[in-house]
């Protein structure tokens, strides 16, 4: 009998059924009152047992239970990581250097200068982990005084900050580990190791791409965008440092020469003619249409690592745009001035360019 069916009433009924009919079993009787406390405790035990069973299996475990279960397979929950951003600093006469370790406030979080890229340009690491470090763009406010500083600006995301891996993401990696065995430098192992590096979203692996012992990995970052040169350099060093290629000083096995590259961003310009409701205007819905197209691109990018190539389809664009409130009809849709689907290369992801409504 299933544990969830073992209610207090059912347990009482079963216990009383074992008592001879010659004994008074009515509620309030001696035998009834003697059995009732034990039946209540057993009901609690069965309820707890059901919960404990859920905690024991990866498809129902959560939080620390899932973390511990995944450890049995050598799959570890990825921790939150800090965003690394580009900071640009100027004085009265132009770009100027600042001390490493200088702290600045931007939005609701603080950033610290951790590495100099060039005159007046620094890597700025967020002091808080997670995606919160990716959000702010604009002026930075010095926390400590820096003589001669007249302008401080936070610009590009170099390495995206990531929140701690969710239960569903960890569960998916655990289940994948059951079907894809990572061993001895095979494709599964390269993919597993690279995608666990902070800032990496997905990796597409090309074995023996330039002869025996060569491996190429093409990446997108954790925000689904083309990764920065800083992230590519970080991954290259972790997997197979360029200055010691093939020597096994990174994660790659001895004899494997690994090349890490960024996915290619293909600009996608979309144009169409919209028929709008009388209460709507293009200016009023333009941002919603762009967000809808970007959401479609994001869904494509999420499948990139496991696809031969991505195809941006006119039918998918039109169906999604028609769902935008205020849009009645769409005609004449083109992608990069062509009335047909756009097939990308096997290492390319779509990057939204211009969005044009010819009816405007």
Explain this structure.
The protein has 360 residues and is of the alpha+beta class. It has four domains: 3-56, no CATH class; 82-159, no CATH class; 180-262; 265-357, no CATH class. It is built from eight helices and 16 strands. Strands 1, 2, 3, 4, 5, 6, 7 and 8 form an eight-stranded antiparallel sheet that branches. The model has no long low-confidence stretch (mean pLDDT 93).
Give the SSE map.
Elements: H1 8-17, H2 30-56, H3 63-71, E1 82-91, E2 94-95, E3 103-106, E4 109-118, E5 121-129, E6 138-139, E7 141-142, E8 149-159, H4 167-179, H5 187-195, E9 200-207, E10 214-221, H6 229-239, E11 257-262, E12 264-276, H7 282-301, E13 311-312, H8 314-322, E14 327-335, E15 342-343, E16 348-357
Parallel strand pairs: 10-11, 12-16
Antiparallel strand pairs: 1-2, 1-5, 1-8, 3-4, 3-7, 4-5, 6-8, 9-10, 12-14, 13-15
Helix pairs in contact: 1-2, 3-4, 7-8
